[in-house]
Amino acid sequence: SRARASNFLLSQPELWLGYHDQKRRERGLAMVNDFAQEKVRNQRLKEIEEICNRYYLDGLEINFCRSYHLFKENEIDQGRELLTDFMRQMRAILDRVGSGRGRRIETIVR
């Protein structure tokens, strides 16, 4: 079966990594979200918060292995700081929601 992309991804190609060479396109990298874009990171944080509020979670797993290309090759160094900040913001969401429920929401990242 084929993976489905979100409307957010499909409707905003300017937020894709946009690799258009054949090898990367075959690996599905043309339509991967570019985490250097603040709009992409904010959308992901919004989705995480919605999931945490909608479901009574014990924990949340973030899988960066599914698509480990988060930044363009020439933006990896700056991307480290952006990703670290993203993870801090995610942890703050989990802590805020967990605090309201009286327990910590764990997280695992791979």
Can you walk me through this structure?
The protein is mainly alpha-helical and 110 residues long. The chain contains 4 helices and 2 strands. The chain has a two-stranded parallel sheet. Helix 4 links the parallel strand 1 and strand 2. The relative contact order is 0.15. The mean pLDDT is 83.
Entry summary:
47% of the residues lie in helices and 7% in strands. The protein has 110 residues and is mainly α.
Number of helices: 4
Biggest sheet statistics: 2 strands, parallel
Mean pLDDT: 83
Structural class: mainly alpha
SSE order, as H and E?
Answer: HHHEHE
Q: Kindly report the spatial arrangement of strands forming the biggest sheet.
A: 1-2
Dominant shape? globular
Helix content: 40-55%
Record field, number of beta strands:
2
Radius of gyration: 15 Å
Share in β-strands: 5-15%
Distance between the termini: 23 Å
Low-confidence stretches: none
Features of this protein?
110 residues; mainly alpha; single chain; 4 helices
Chart the SSEs and their pairings.
Blueprint: H1 7-10, H2 22-26, H3 38-54, E1 59-62, H4 76-101, E2 106-109
Parallel strand pairs: 1-2
